[in-house]
Design goal:
Layout (H helix, E strand, L loop, with lengths): L12 H4 L2 H7 L4 H9 L2 H4 L22 E8 L24 H4 L23 E4 L4 E4 L3 H5 L4 E8 L5 H10 L9 H9 L9 E7 L26 E3 L17 H22 L2 H24 L6 H6 L10 H13 L4 E7 L7 H25 L6 E6 L3 E2 L16 E2 L3 E6 L7 E3 L1 E2 L6 E3 L2 E2 H11 L9 E3 L2 E3 L16
Parallel strand pairs: 1-7, 1-8, 4-12, 4-15, 5-6, 5-7
Antiparallel strand pairs: 2-3, 4-11, 8-11, 9-10, 13-14, 16-17
Helix pairs in contact: 9-10, 12-13
Length: 492
């Protein structure tokens, strides 16, 4: 190690504040090698990807999709009232859940102390829909009408039994907060397809099923240890969809342009001195925000949408902030080649009064979801767009609280639950996976959360094992460190 570096050169704030530059000034040493493996990947991979392009070498193989629309139903919809038909339960209603089914598996603190675990069959009817004959609840008639475009996965499972770690797991591949979200991973790997809008955009709506739904945090669409430019950008429902995007009063566009040019020059000087990739991110985001001043108003202007299209999404499409309006915005974002679009819809946490509360949630989401799938299909977008619908875990076959003929609740159940996918190279009109007669355990073709991540990435042309970033001695990836694989049986 070279210890002859002048002390005066270390007094500069830009050097003292940047460990990498300090190590470089000290010569090639074990310290600099350690920094490369343990330091922030934002420093190690500052120049790995250009502003609008993905990583070198991606896609790894031919893709069947180029974008994702993830319809995340926050709170965990019950599989018993949606896609996992269990008609035999009516014969054993109110009897105790057999011990050989539960097998001592973990329960939440909300029902672990119950003296009884009575079987609660769904009070809703199921019908076989479309030529594929997929069983779908009467609560979802419009989704039933597009059954032949869906792949229903009834064998999802997760280790997380409480909402926050379970939602975090779906969004980031880890139950620990602070990891990059799946949209950020896709943006990091594949880059942008639209220079005027963010690569990853998020919309949030609150359902009518349960007003006090599970909270959502911005970290769920954050970048974690990836460069900040891959952060999800949330579209708000108010008059200002993206905060601070509009010019302040008295600041015309030409003045804003000159201000940004001056800021860019100053920031570039700082980047040259510090090599901090977040300074480069700031430069890029200022430029993107300037372009978004034109793109976002155009995105939010529905005047060119026909009455037939608006009607297909249901009456709530005219109400800002609703799931229906967000579904139409999702289609408009897909048209504009936004790479990853995620809708969070809160209110699915039905521990009690499930028939009433879930009925309202389904009314919120059924028609708009089906309209989105049809709209994408009619415009030729479904072919290269993966649509995913589902929550963070499932619901118990036994009742939480008092069980009556018309009312019941269900607790959290991570062992098995249902989601569906459509488009983007997913086999349509199919069902994958089987659960036991109680929808308590999986008996065929289990699909882990990280398997789903691997499958989505595969359809996008990414080998999930190769989309990694070094962090604290570990090669982080969306699909986790265990041996997970794409579910090839659901891919065309």
């Amino acid at each position: 190690m070279n210890f002859e570096t002048p002390i005066s050169s270390l007094q500069d704030d830009s050097i003292r504040g940047n460990r990498r530059l300090f190590l470089q000034s000290a010569g090639l040493s074990l310290g600099s090698i350690a920094a490369a493996s343990l330091g922030s990947p934002r420093t190690v991979h500052a120049d790995a990807a250009a502003a609008s392009h993905g990583l070198p070498g991606l896609p790894h193989h031919k893709a069947t999709a180029k974008r994702v629309i993830y319809l995340f139903q926050s709170g965990a919809p019950s599989q018993f009232e949606s896609f996992d038909y269990k008609p035999g339960l009516s014969k054993i209603a109110k009897t105790e859940l057999p011990n050989e089914v539960r097998m001592g598996q973990r329960l939440t603190g909300m029902t672990a102390g119950q003296a009884s675990f009575p079987i609660a069959p769904s009070i809703f009817e199921f019908k076989q829909k479309g030529e594929s004959g997929i069983w779908i609840s009467e609560l979802l008639p419009h989704i039933g009408d597009v059954a032949d475009k869906l792949c229903v996965v009834r064998s999802m499972h997760t280790e997380a039994i409480n909402h926050d770690p379970a939602i975090t797991f779906f969004q980031t591949g880890s139950q620990l907060s602070g990891r990059p979200s799946m949209g950020a991973w896709v943006a990091y790997g594949l880059g942008s397809m639209n220079e005027n809008l963010p690569t990853f955009m998020v919309l949030v709506s609150r359902g009518t099923g349960r007003a006090a739904g599970q909270p959502l945090y911005d970290r769920l669409w954050g970048t974690g240890v990836l460069p900040g430019k891959h952060q999800g950008v949330k579209l708000r429902s108010g008059s200002d969809p993206v905060l601070y995007l509009s010019n302040p009063a008295g600041c015309p566009p030409q003045v804003r342009r000159r201000i940004l040019d001056d800021l860019k020059s100053l920031n570039q000087e700082t980047y040259t001195r510090t090599l901090d990739p977040e300074v480069q991110t700031r430069i890029e985001q200022y430029e993107l925000a300037f372009r978004m001043q034109t793109a976002v108003p155009d995105l939010m202007d529905f005047s060119n949408e026909s009455a037939a299209v608006l009607d297909s999404y249901g009456p709530d499409v005219h109400k800002p902030g609703t799931y229906a309006r967000n579904c139409l915005l999702a289609r408009r974002l897909a048209e504009r080649d936004v790479r990853f679009i995620e809708l969070f819809h809160m209110g699915w946490d039905q521990h009690d009064n499930l028939p009433d509360h879930m009925g309202k949630q389904c009314k919120d989401t059924d028609q708009p979801t089906a309209a989105l799938i049809n709209d994408l299909d009619e415009r030729g977008l479904l072919e290269d767009t993966i649509v995913v619908w589902g929550g963070e875990f499932g619901r118990t076959v036994y009742c939480q609280g008092k069980l009556t003929e018309t009312n019941y609740g269900r607790d959290h159940h991570p062992r098995c639950f249902s989601i569906f996918l459509a488009g983007g190279g997913i086999k349509p009109g199919t069902v994958h996976g089987t659960t036991d007669d109680f929808s308590y355990n999986i008996v065929e073709n289990p699909v882990h959360v990280n398997d789903l991540h691997a499958t989505m990435l595969h359809a996008l042309g990414i080998d999930h094992r190769r989309l990694t970033i070094p962090f604290q001695g570990l090669d982080l990836r969306l699909s986790g460190v265990e041996d997970r694989n794409p579910v090839m049986d659901i891919l065309m």
